[in-house]
Specification:
The complex is a heterodimer of chains A (414) and B (163). By secondary structure, chain A is α/β, with parallel strands linked by helices. Chain A has 17 helices and 9 strands. The longest helix of chain A has 18 residues. Chain A is globular. The termini of chain A are far apart. Chain B is of the alpha+beta class and 163 residues long. Chain B is built from 7 helices and 4 strands, in the order ααααβααβββα. Chain B has a 4-stranded mixed beta sheet with strand order 2-1-3-4, with helices on one face. In chain B, α1 packs antiparallel against α2, α2 packs across α3 and α3 crosses α4. Chain B starts with 12 loop residues before the first helix and ends with a helix. The chains are: A alpha/beta (414), B alpha+beta (163). The interface between A and B is large, with 58 and 41 residues.
Chain lengths: 414, 163
């Protein structure tokens, strides 16, 4: 069994407390970081091949490097804890079971990018995680780990925990920024990217919870160690959320070089009841669906990209042979129709039309031309909107139909 | 509170102090709008047009701006809700593992449709998108709490605990 890094304390009672975090080596990475120059930390994170683990998989150190040099005004760090991608629940575990790992990662990251104010945007439904994380932040202030002159370093950092109010689109970084600013969560046109002009008009780095939790370990054990855990283009381990038709649903931390097959069959215990596997959503609902014979891909960003899908948020939803794929598409299409923010016409209209067509197919009222209409609407809409939301919906629309067209046709013929 | 259950829309001095604290926390005071609306919903039960106007006044915003924000997010209630809110996840994993049966059972037990509130004002029933607790599917949120691995018995037990 590979070494657990992010989840190593999850089984310990009191894993959310400062006492336990310190007993298990916590905040040692911070001491190391304070002995380094900020630019050296960014360099180390670049060398580690740490990639964003919220969904887009962008190299973290490279993102930090986009900040303007010598910016005269404030720079902000924003933690995206607006976990919402269907099939994903790892950030909830981190907030509840190891909040100090996030706080330590935030202090180091803020020091690296020169931020003195950091926001943690937590989805509104995560009331318990918000409470637990908020208590950890209070503990950190009391211990002098947040606030002025942290641990005698001369570095100041304040943290604001900000609750969302229910909207998937706020997980998109510019939508999140709009929401943080007190507006509806409409994404913004890029460029300018948040690193140039983000929250409150200031250069802003938005990183996912899990991404930032890796940073203390990179400080402690070095970029080479972290890079060596993964593949050529992505370092480290990753927390896979596995759900659906598996014997042991849950969070599994594995090196990104593991295969989807081993995740499902070895770690999550395979399919219950001796039933056969039909399909797998490998990286949150926006990922292209894989069939049972496509699961030998490795779980890193490039491995799943080469398999025609994406690592996304690493939310793995397993469907056994009893599942109706048209029904699954209807459920997924309802989600995208509900969550489209309505700003861009192609996304707002297409998600609604496609849901209606998917629903009537399931209800036995499908028309012969519906499948090709869905594919056409999906393809035409891709890449036409301000953010990647509709592009994320296109993955399931097209792959569910193309890979299981016979199931849809059987319903239409009836 | 009047006979129809409407609460007077005005914060207490303590709540107003909290509003000022929240407004001072951020680089731009408008960023406190979501937390203040959350406070308003806690205080008034739901966010009426009157409450939107009141909050707009606290931020020197037009009521239209506040309305735009309130209507964008699912967790703001614009009508009175039940004393408890049960939100059943109906997204993919929960759907695969029986969310529709959970919803059907709740509809029958409560005698309401999805989106409805029991006549005694005890429970509002909702179907919602992924709450990101798929490992415990099928699951629901009851007020602040997540409950998963739902069976008919467990749903009944949850209902018994709601005053």
């Amino acid at each position: 069994m590979a070494e657990k890094i992010l989840t190593r304390n999850f089984h310990l009672p009191g894993s959310h407390t400062l006492v336990l975090y310190r007993e298990t080596g916590g905040y040692a990475g911070l001491e190391k970081a304070f002995a380094m120059k900020p630019a050296e930390i960014t360099e180390e994170v670049k060398k580690s091949n740490l990639r964003g683990l919220g969904g887009a998989g962008f190299p973290t150190g490279v993102k930090w490097g986009f900040l303007p040099q010598g910016h005269p005004g404030p720079v902000y760090l924003v933690i995206n804890a607006d976990e919402g991608e269907p099939g994903t629940f790892k950030d909830r575990y981190l907030l509840e079971r190891d909040p100090h790992a996030l706080i330590e990662g935030m202090i180091i990251s803020a020091y690296a990018i020169g931020a003195h104010l950091a926001f943690v945007y937590i989805r509104g439904e995560y009331v318990q995680p918000w409470r637990i994380f908020g208590r950890a932040v209070a503990e950190a202030y009391e211990a002098g780990l947040l606030g002025k002159n942290i641990r005698g370093s001369g570095f100041d950092l304040d943290v604001i925990c900000h609750r969302g109010a229910g909207a998937y689109i706020c997980g998109e970084e510019t939508g999140l920024i709009s929401s943080l600013e007190g507006k509806k969560g409409w994404p913004k046109l890029k460029p300018p990217f948040p690193a140039i002009r983000g929250a409150f008009g200031a250069p802003t780095i938005v990183n996912n919870v899990e991404t930032i939790c890796h940073v203390p370990h990179i400080m402690n054990r070095g970029a080479a160690w972290f890079a060596g855990l993964g593949t050529k283009s992505q370092g480290g381990t990753r927390m896979y959320s596995v759900s659906g038709h598996v014997t042991r649903p849950g969070v599994y931390e594995l090196p990104v070089s593991a295969t989807l097959r081993s995740l499902i069959y070895e770690h999550a215990g395979g399919i219950p009841g001796g039933r056969r596997l039909k399909a797998v959503v490998p990286g949150g609902s926006s990922a292209v669906l894989l069939t049972a014979d496509e699961i030998d891909a490795t779980l890193d960003v490039d491995g799943l990209k080469n398999a025609g899908t994406m690592a996304g948020s690493a939310g793995v939803i397993v469907m056994d042979e009893t599942v109706s794929i048209p029904e699954a598409l209807m459920v997924v299409a309802r989600f995208y129709a509900h969550e489209s923010c309505g700003q861009c016409t192609p996304c707002r209209e297409s998600t609604g039309w496609i849901y209606k067509m998917a629903r009537r197919i399931v209800e036995g009222k499908g028309r012969k031309e519906d499948l090709d209409t869905i594919l056409d609407v999906a393809r035409r809409g891709a890449g036409t909107a301000i953010c990647a939301f509709f592009d994320g919906a296109v993955g399931p629309y097209i792959s569910y139909i193309e890979k299981f067209r016979h199931e849809f046709e059987a319903l239409i013929r009836k | 509170m009047n006979a129809r259950g409407a609460v007077r829309v005005e914060f207490t001095p303590e709540q107003r102090a909290e509003v000022r604290r929240l407004q001072g926390l951020y680089p731009d005071r408008r960023a406190a709008l979501l937390p203040v609306l959350q406070l308003a919903q806690e205080a008034f039960g739901h966010i009426s047009l009157e409450a939107e106007e009141y909050v707009a006044g606290l931020f020197d915003l037009s009521p239209a701006h506040v309305h735009e924000v309130v209507t964008f997010y699912t967790l703001f209630f614009r009508e009175p809700k039940g004393r408890h809110v049960i939100s059943v996840c109906h997204n993919l994993t929960c759907h695969l593992l029986g969310a529709q049966q959970v919803l059907a059972h709740l509809k029958e037990r409560l005698g309401v449709e999805v989106g409805g509130t029991t006549p005694d004002g005890r429970v509002t029933l909702l179907g919602v998108e992924c709450l990101c607790a798929c490992e415990m599917a099928p699951m629901l949120q009851v007020d602040d709490r997540y409950e998963g691995n739902l069976t008919r018995e467990k749903v009944d037990w949850i209902l018994e605990g709601l005053a």
